[in-house]
Amino acid sequence: MSATGLPSDLLARLEAQLGPGGLLTDEADCAPYGIDWRRLFPGRAAAVARPSNTGQVSSIVGLCREAGIALVPQGGHTGLAGGATPDASGRQIVLSLARMNAVRAVDPVGLTMEVEAGCVVQAAQGAAEAAGRLFPVSYGAEGSAMVGGMIATNAGGINVLRYGMTRSLVLGLEVVLADGSIVDGLRSLRKDNAGYDWKQLFIGSEGTLGIVTAAVLRLVPRPRYTETALLAVHDPEAALRILSAAQDGLGDTIQAFELISRCSFDLLERHAGLSCPLPPSPWCVLLEAGSSLSGLRDAVEGTLGEALERGDAVDGVLAESKAQAAGLWSLRERITECEAHQGKSVKHDVSVPIPAIPAFLEAADRALAEDAPGTVANVFGHMGDGNLHYNVLVGPEHDGAAINRLVHDVVDRFAGSISAEHGIGQYRVDELARRRRPEEMALASRLKRALDPDGLLNPGKVLRG
Question: Can you cite a GO biological process for this protein (predicted)?
Answer without folding.
Answer: respiratory electron transport chain
